[in-house]
């Protein structure tokens, strides 16, 4: 199926219930210069056969029938019989699709992965698209009935394009679903052709991954944007290309993934606010592995404390019950809980809770623990990369400091105490002691002085 002139689009779907849509898509894509690999993920009567018996496939394309996928999966697993229970069938099909599609990707043959369906098909297909075998930059497209809800579980840290199907994808086409499907296919075809052209250009020039300046990852938030912009300008002057990631949970996970995939020569984790949401049930957690990838993969990094002064929630009305607000006749965005915590209504959909001194101390300890976890994952047989924690003592966000809405020097001191205490606790290991060091600066995180200090420190450890 690999071709130098026609891109390959992999379609993943349940042909037992949606064959009409997948036949339409296959024909449409083939007519517009694409080869197609169709992976039938049918679970209904899949061991005996699937509804794909009459499926038409063109020259240069291929249909992977569910029965054949299951038989191939079984032959790779000690020649056991294909499973019959539906959940086991689905798991086996997922493994088989990953194996076959992964083989195509390893050959450099895949130019896009796409799927159309409801909740089951969306969960199945996006679990494959998120796999590390299919890197950021490989087009991935999901036309789904589930696009109107929370799609974060489908996206993970990947770059999946999700489009609402409007009408149900249920095995028949009508004026509405045909239109949305054609629009989706036009996008998929365009991305696939562009991806193929990019692959061919790289092959001809033999540039590979060296056709750009060294990349440096930077984490940012609205309240640290000023600092990130200054740091980015300084990096560009030094010949580096900064890549910013918005610390919204998915942003942090994506940055960690790209670090693992070897995109960056260094990391400036200026904005570690996702740790707050992970520890205190905010809405922007990046999960339990945040702040581990760079250390685990030996990438030098400068870490700071950006926006560790806030836990992120949705609208004011969505605050958890533990944040019971004091009633007040005063109008404005600032509120207080009955326990004295500051609550700031940033806008109608974003509410921020100021972290207390005790929470900041815990955050400092946790931050160091995450870095140590990364160092331990690297292993003692590999050299650890240097890590510098820069603490801006005059404020850690646009909201914190003398010009902010909740200046809290005691909380900042507690944050530093937590960091230093954790470093002392882990200093018994010589490698950890030499690898992770803390540097304090009497400046604000968004100040020019701190931006210069961050870049100077990074250049030293690189």
Can you summarize this structure?
The protein is α/β, with parallel strands linked by helices and 462 residues long. It is built from 14 helices and 16 strands.
Q: State the CATH architecture of the largest domain.
A: 3-Layer(aba) Sandwich
CATH superfamily of the largest domain: Uncharacterised protein family UPF0261, NC domain
Count up the domains. Answer: 3
Helix content: 40-55%
Largest sheet: 6 strands, parallel
Structure in words:
The protein has 462 residues and is an alpha/beta fold. The protein has three domains: 8-204, 3-Layer(aba) Sandwich (Rossmann fold), CATH 3.40.50; 215-309 and 355-461, 3-Layer(aba) Sandwich (Rossmann fold), CATH 3.40.50.12030; 314-353, no CATH class. The chain is 40% helix and 17% strand. It is built from 14 helices and 16 strands. The protein has helices at 15-31, 66-75, 86-106, 119-129, 152-155, 175-205, 225-237, 250-260, 274-279, 293-296, 357-378, 409-425, 430-435, 448-461, and strands at 8-13, 35-40, 62-64, 112-117, 140-144, 161-164, 215-220, 241-246, 266-269, 301-303, 310-313, 334-336, 342-347, 350-354, 387-392, 436-441. The strands form three sheets. A six-stranded parallel beta sheet has the order 3-2-1-4-5-6, with helices on both faces. Strands 8-7-9-10-15-16 form a six-stranded parallel beta sheet, sandwiched between helices. It has a four-stranded antiparallel beta sheet with strand order 11-14-13-12. Helix 1 packs across helix 6 (175-205) and helix 3 (86-106) runs parallel beside helix 4 (119-129). The model is unreliable at 46-52 (pLDDT under 50).
